[in-house]
Model the fold of this input.
Amino acid sequence: MSKTYKAVANDHISVALDISDAIVSRVKVDGSLVGLHNENKVEASLLASDFDSRTYSIRLRGNIYTIKLQNKLDQQIEEMGLSLGNKSTASMVDAPMPGLVLSVLVKEGDAVEEGDGLLVLEAMKMENKLVAPRSGVIKSVHVTANQTVEKGFVLIEFEEEDEN
Amino acid sequence: MKIKKIVVANRGEIALRIMRTAKKMGIQTVAVYSEADKDAPHVHFADQAVCIGPAASSESYLKGNTIIEVAKNLGADAIHPGYGFLSENADFAEQVAKNNLIFIGPKAHAIEVMGNKLASKESLEGRDIPMIPGTKDAIDNPEKAIQIANEIGYPVLIKAAAGGGGRGMRVVNKESEIKEQMDRAINEAVSAFGDGSVFIEKFVESPRHIEVQILADTHGNIVHLFERECSIQRRHQKVVEEAPSVVVNDELRNRMGKAAVEVARACDYVGAGTVEFLLDSDKKFYFLEMNTRLQVEHPITEMITDLDLVEEQIRIAQGEALSFTQEDLKINGHAIELRVYAEDPYDNFNPSIGTLSRYEIPIGKGIRVDDGVVEGSKIPIYYDPMVSKLIVHAPSRTEAITKMLAAIANYKIEGIQTTLSFGDFVCRHKAFVSGDFNTHFVDQYFDEDTRERIQEEEAAIAAKIALGLHLEAKTKLRIPKNE
Done:
């Protein structure tokens, strides 16, 4: 049985829903709400809501879920495979956390195997070795030792993979 | 001698926590702070506050001489180091004493002996304290270290001789990994402590981490304040602690307590200290190390003993004798602490740095929050990423777990990810609830598949709530037809 609604949580977890799945709850002034899920009490908090864009940000058990309820048009577009924003990230290695680059182990033009060390990033007193997500050739290195980087900063780019 | 003014050589929650007790005792407080902390709560709470340098701790909170100068200039008589920073720096303790100030903690000798894992083992030789098989001497030669690791048999643990708090520790499971891990451990030890020597020991599999709080006065009295169970760790650092431990019965408690007191006696310990043990699956315990300072997780001991450990530290530093004996101490109920770190448990506990756009603590009987932040605070990258400690106390363990879950639900932090969600996971997990867990809890139960499953489950519940809210809004708002 196919579900009527679709929701996407935090841009990557998709959930299929029926109207009957809706949890009825009452939101207090401070955003806290209580509802029933499979006969169990659920406590959560509504952090933000936007009716027009059907977006609701809910904190549950210490995690925050930004839920976007999709309307039919959105769903149709997605089913036809026309969704945008599907760029490949496999050719880039970005910083998983803010930190200080201790050393860079590769240079432009180096061929690396999956799992080879690329650079060492220090954050919160820990040394973390970032490794190659796949085999390939290093196209460019955007950092040098002793450089501070923010989370998400693109550190190293790979040459596009050959078609074969 | 009665202490009248204390310089608190620390920041964050522990600085505030120390100042609160000082204030309660009628003692003046002086905060020191770095440029990154100029608006921090501990600065505003103190009676006086002095900026001691730029953000980097090596330029501020680790500047012992500057802090001693502050104490002298402001007429303070004592320095409380808190935990971390200068708390286990023997030179600092000695300099404080040389400047006719009171160091609220043990004597430099005890810090020095216990701060070095090899020296601490040596000092305990011939006493009735169980030890783990391993190297006796510090090693900085990778080849020799590898040879010894091969002799002991895998898995082995490499530890920086000057390390602590989980820093500079690496587990090596097989011979093929030893070379790289050893180089990295030595490099890390050199950069973190300026001392590349490491020691190697048998890695006890499936151990529980149990530690015993002790108090020793200057009159030769030493008591233990029972154990804390600290097995729930990530990256060898504690996240959830509880007291008492479910697996420690009175007989074992008594033996571990006696061993802890013996360790304290061996180094002429004074003040509050913690003796850490590993407890294996056969309930055999081994001495791990002694922490010569107040521990992060001391509040759970306070909750079950009705003592204020900072007050006890100050009284001991003033030369007072303990006002109770071992026989006077009883365990009252059960306490659990969750360290709320600015980390994303669902992204491998990576740091989550940002501004606390919303910050509201849970309030209720038996709920305690030790924090050093307010709404709008930034979590700086320069220091430990701990935001606060959430502590609950209840008559039984079951009630304490329930209380912790409710407290987590009512702890409103936005702007960063925190370990609150991990605390929720732990308190719902059957291994934790049953008490059958060890230090591998995170690796065993909080693996990627589980994390994904939990996020999917929670996302589904959140989506159902969102749908309910949306449908309700639609009815109320009478939007003609939008979909």
Q: What stands out?
A: The longest strand of chain B covers residues 222-234. Chain B touches chain A through 56 residues (CB under 8 Å). Chain B has 16 helices and 20 strands.
